[in-house]
């Protein structure tokens, strides 16, 4: 079944229609008859989504064979803040969108001892060193943004068209913001599979290759854990669990001229069963560092 894209502001209909076409989504004009703001606008949206929730529940009830415990029923929305993925669960979770001005991301960058520093240290950004980084599993681009905000040139690769669209939309808005444009200039985004991008990089001379390849594939999560916020559950549902992630490591080590950094849940087995030369442990996740190694 095709995803629907609800455009919530008439002023953005053209951009929203382009997005829907690119993603093969059904375009729906979901704006109110009169432009609304503030509380009235929120009420209009809640009513619209409540109607959709009811239709989805009825459709699911009519199909008792299906196991919906795992499913996150979602629509795309397009509004004055750009493109977002909205899960239609009760209570309604916040939409998932790429917003590089987001306060929690800004805090990660400003906080010298936080997670932002950990990814930067793992990638070797210190004492003014700003390596060329290839983020082969870009997702919603937060790690890439942190690295770029600290001065690194980052190429991002994302293969899931919907996630790529969310990221491209966030990047477009950042390019238009006086506060964010400087960092956005250091980011390039590819819509591709990282394996083919890495194979193409292998043909380049070392000085043209990334110094660091960063890998943060999705880790398989079996159940709908309470720890996973409802909005991120929709993201997981769209992406899946990157079962082919092991294959990226050998290629990444052949391409990177300085190191490969792999982000894993703290207790997860090593990617591809390969032991790293260094581990940086965090509270719930860790960074595994690998030296470059030619393909055997
Ligand atoms: C856990 S998310 C990455 C989150 C990201 N580090 C961030 O800060 O937002 C993993 C992403 O990598 C993408 N991905 C996994 N394997 C890939 C591959 N071989 N090529 C391109 N993208 C890939 C998935 O589609 C998913 O969006």
From TrEMBL:
Its EC number(s): 2.1.1.242
Pfam families the record matches: SAM_MT (PF04445)
Gene3D superfamilies: Vaccinia Virus protein VP39
Molecular function, one GO term: methyltransferase activity
Record keywords: Cytoplasm, Methyltransferase, rRNA processing, S-adenosyl-L-methionine, Transferase
Catalyzed reactions per annotation: guanosine(1516) in 16S rRNA + S-adenosyl-L-methionine = N(2)-methylguanosine(1516) in 16S rRNA + S-adenosyl-L-homocysteine + H(+)
An annotated GO BP: methylation
Subcellular location: Cytoplasm
Keyword NADP in annotation: no
UniProt xrefs under InterPro entries: 16SrRNA_methylTrfase_J, SAM-dependent_MTases_sf
Binding residues annotated for S-adenosyl-L-methionine, in chain numbering: 142-143, 158-159, 216
Family per similarity comment: Belongs to the methyltransferase superfamily. RsmJ family.
Annotated function: Specifically methylates the guanosine in position 1516 of 16S rRNA.
Entry-linked HAMAP family: 16SrRNA_methyltr_J (MF_01523)
Name of this chain's protein: Ribosomal RNA small subunit methyltransferase J
Name of the gene this protein is made from: rsmJ
């Amino acid at each position: 079944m095709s995803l629907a894209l609800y455009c919530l502001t008439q002023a953005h209909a053209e951009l929203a229609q382009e997005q829907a076409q690119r993603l093969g989504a059904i375009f729906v004009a979901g704006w109110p008859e009169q432009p609304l703001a503030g509380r009235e606008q929120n009420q209009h949206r809640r009513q619209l989504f409540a109607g959709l929730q009811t239709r989805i529940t009825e459709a699911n009830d009519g199909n008792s064979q299906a196991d919906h415990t795992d499913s996150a029923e979602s629509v795309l929305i397009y509004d004055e803040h750009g493109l977002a993925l909205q899960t239609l669960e009760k209570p309604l979770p916040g939409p998932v969108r790429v917003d590089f001005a987001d306060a929690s991301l800004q805090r990660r960058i400003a906080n010298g001892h936080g997670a932002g520093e950990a990814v930067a240290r793992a990638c070797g950004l210190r004492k003014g060193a700003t390596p060329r980084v290839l983020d082969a599993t870009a997702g919603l681009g937060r790690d890439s943004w942190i690295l770029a905000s600290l001065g690194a040139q980052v190429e991002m690769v994302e293969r899931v068209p919907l996630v790529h669209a969310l990221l491209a939309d966030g990047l477009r808005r950042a390019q238009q913001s006086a506060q964010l444009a400087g960092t956005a200039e250091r980011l390039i985004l590819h819509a591709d599979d990282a394996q083919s991008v890495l194979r193409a990089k292998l043909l380049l001379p070392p000085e043209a290759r990334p110094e660091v390849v960063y890998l943060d594939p999705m880790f398989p999560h079996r159940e709908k854990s309470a720890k996973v916020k409802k909005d991120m559950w929709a993201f997981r549902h769209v992406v899946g669990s990157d079962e082919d992630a092991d294959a990226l490591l050998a290629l990444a080590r052949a391409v990177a001229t300085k190191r490969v950094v792999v982000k894993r849940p703290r207790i997860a087995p090593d990617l591809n069963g390969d032991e790293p030369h260094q581990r940086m442990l965090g509270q719930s996740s860790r960074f595994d560092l690998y030296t470059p190694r030619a393909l055997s």
